[in-house]
Each structure stands twice: as structure tokens, then as C-alpha cells.
Amino acid sequence: MLDYDGQPMLDYAPCRYGASKVDFRGPAREFEPPYIACLGGTEFYGKYLRQPIPDLLEAQLGEACLNLGRTNAGLDMFAVDPEVMRLASQASVAVVQITSAHNISNRFYSVHPRRNDRFIAPTELLRAVFPEVDFTTIHFTRHALQELRRVSPSRFRVVVDELKSVWTIRMLEILSRIDAQVVLFWMGDHSPDDDEPSSVRDPLFVDRTMLEVLRPHVAQVVECIVSVEAQPPELDDMICKIDEHDIARFMFGPTAHAEAVAALLTPVRQALQGARAQSSPKYA
User: Fold this and answer.
1) What angle do CA 199, 111, 150 make, to 5 degrees?
2) What are the residue boundaries of the structural domains of the chain, listed by start?
3) Mutual orientation of helices 153-177 and 141-151 as an angle, nearest 10°?
């Protein structure tokens, strides 16, 4: 598919499920259990890629995979959407990608309920901590945090600590609502042991301590630290217009996604076996 300038385009076939107001990557699928639900952000959505991770996982496992990924998604998108929680709970296995901690509403600012990278407004607390910042020019969470860090690294740490705390609490809430085997999935070019990664890629502000809090509540924790060879992405294998190349360079390409699927295969198979071994009527 080409746009009016003859540049390549992908048809993401956006679709919605049930009463959800979120557009996921399509085409829409009608699933009856058992299936695997894949909840996540840009990597699961597969922006600029012919086949997102859920499609690759389905092809390797021979099990239906429902793509509930959304570009720049944060936890708020899942937490406020009962339909997503229902679809995740009806699955045999829910693969939940670790998304960044900055795309969530907190004591300092609010984000859009579905487009979680959109900075809606600062709270009075944030205005009090950063009185010199003009928030009227800020529209995205990453821009907001870059500005706060520039103005005062020490005061910025207070905001980061809040984001880490809220992220952990909200993730525990989401996990408590998913009645399925959960595989928690970290994908990044840095380890969760790097508390202050130099990378600009997600997941931002999520560290090992936070993951260990979640570990008892999930079946598996999978880490895919993308190899140096898979960075930067192969733009020739990504479908995007020339004026979007600067955006695509900060995303993972097909080689990185292949590494992700390789990391997920065995843990997801094990989670499927665990789901089938349960005595719940759902798997009878």
C-alpha cells in the first residue's frame, strides 16, 4: 500500500473489541477460549512492522494469539478498560508486556485514559514543586519529564519515585484482575538492573526491585534484552514513510522482535501447560 507520495504504508486495520474504546491492531479476530492474550505497548502493536510479536508467537506456537497491544500504551489504558481485563481473564495465558512508568496518572500529573503518552495537566503539587515550568507548552509525558529533569535533577527524582510507586501499585491491581496464567515480559535494550539507563527506549523507570515485587503474582517473568546486533533497527525492513524514519529509529525492528519471540516461546508453552493442568472448569 502506498500513500499519495508513493511512500509505503501499512494497513493496521484498527479494530475494537466489545465495549472497549481502544483501537487495537487488526484485523479483528473472534476468539473462543483457549487463546493467548497479549497486552502491551508499541512492541506488541508492531508499528512499522508487517508482523507484530503476537502474530509471530501464534505462528510458532500454533495457538491463537489476541493482540491487545497499543502504541505508547501505559498501565492506565488497561486498568480503566473492563473489556481488556475480560479478554485477558478468558485467555489460557496472558502475556503482559512491561510498559513504562511515565505514562500513568499520578500525584503530579494526569494522562489521557487511552492515549497514555498524552500529558493532560499538572496537579497543583507539581506546580508547587516546579513553579518555574510553563506547562502550557507540554503535550506529551516524555517531553514533560525531559523538561523537569533539565530544570532540577534533584526535584525530578521526587517525581520519578512517585512514578515507580504508582506503577507498582497499578500493576499489582491489574494482575489481581487477570484470572489466567500470566507471563510478564520485559523487552528493552537495557537490563532492569540499570536503574538509570542511558537508553531513551522504554520501559522507562522500571527496575529490578519493582519486577521482584510482581514475581510472586505471575507464572513467569521473561526478560529479552535486545542484542547490540539488533540495534539500530533495520529501516529497510520496516514499512514507514521517509519523514517517519526519525521515529522508527527509536523502535525495535524485525530482528529484535524475533529475539523477543525466541525468549517467550518456552515460558509461554510452560504457562499453557500449567493452565491446562488446573482444575478450573475453564480448562475442563
Assistant:
1) 45
2) 36-101+182-277
3) 150
Along the 284 residues of the chain, how does pLDDT read in single tens digits? 444 455 567 899 999 999 999 999 999 988 788 899 999 999 999 999 999 999 999 999 999 999 999 999 999 999 999 999 999 999 999 999 999 999 999 999 999 999 999 999 999 999 999 999 999 999 999 999 999 999 999 999 999 999 999 999 999 999 999 999 999 999 998 999 986 655 566 899 999 999 999 999 999 999 999 998 887 767 778 898 888 888 888 888 999 999 999 999 999 999 999 998 885 555 44
**93-97 and 181-188 strand pairing:** parallel
Q: 3-state DSSP helix/strand/coil percent for the chain, to nearest 5?
A: 45, 15, 40
Q: What would be the CATH architecture of the domain defined by 36-101+182-277?
A: 3-Layer(aba) Sandwich (3.40)
Bridge partners of 220, per DSSP, are: 183
Hey, is 21 helix, strand or coil? Answer: coil
Q: Which three cell numbers stand for residue 240?
A: 514507514
Grid coordinates belonging to 156 = 525530578
Indicate the residue type of 29. Answer: R
3-state secondary structure (DSSP) of residue 203: coil
Q: Where are the alpha helices (DSSP H) in the chain?
A: 42-45, 53-61, 75-79, 82-90, 124-129, 141-151, 153-177, 208-214, 245-248, 254-277
